[in-house]
Amino acid sequence: MWDHVEDADVVLHAGDVVTGDLLDALRARRPVHAVLGNNDKALVGALPDRLELELAGVPLGMVHDSGPRAGRERRMRRWFPAARLVVFGHSHEPIDAEGLDASACSTPARPSSAAANPGARSAVSSSPTAPSSATRSSR
User: Measured between alpha carbons, how far is 38 from 41 in angstroms, rounded to an integer?
Assistant: First the structure.
């Protein structure tokens, strides 16, 4: 995982960071945008439930739990109306889905689940610029 972090311009963490130590270690290497996961009891108040930001001119939404599969695309559009990409976690299943209005929904799954889930991976993308805006929101 650390190789991916070193190669990245920015880290998007979709929750279940679990400890502030990991968050600090990530932040020591790269800019980090993270949301609160259901296992982040120690980080309540330090991370938002939802996050909207812009990277390289692309509006993004982030949330840990996107809810049930049924209705996910409509729910993500409702929660993040401007987002072209929504990154979420919780399910630990790798998902790359087309959302509504040519948007996309994605969860890379947890990097540690590769043995149990051969499709698991971390998502890696290269961004030519730093985020131009970030907005915290809560449910």
Answer: 7
In a domain, 53, yes or no: yes
Q: How far apart are the first and last CA of the chain?
A: 30
Q: What is the pLDDT of residues 53-96, one digit of tens each?
A: 999 898 999 999 888 888 888 888 899 999 888 888 877 665 55
Is residue 125 assigned to a domain? no
Q: How far is residue 90's CA from residue 105's CA, in Å, rounded to a whole number?
A: 13
Token pair recorded at residue 84: 């072209």
Residue carrying structure tokens 């907005």: 135
Q: How many domains does the chain have?
A: 1
Q: How many CA atoms lie within 13 A of 69 on its CB side?
A: 7
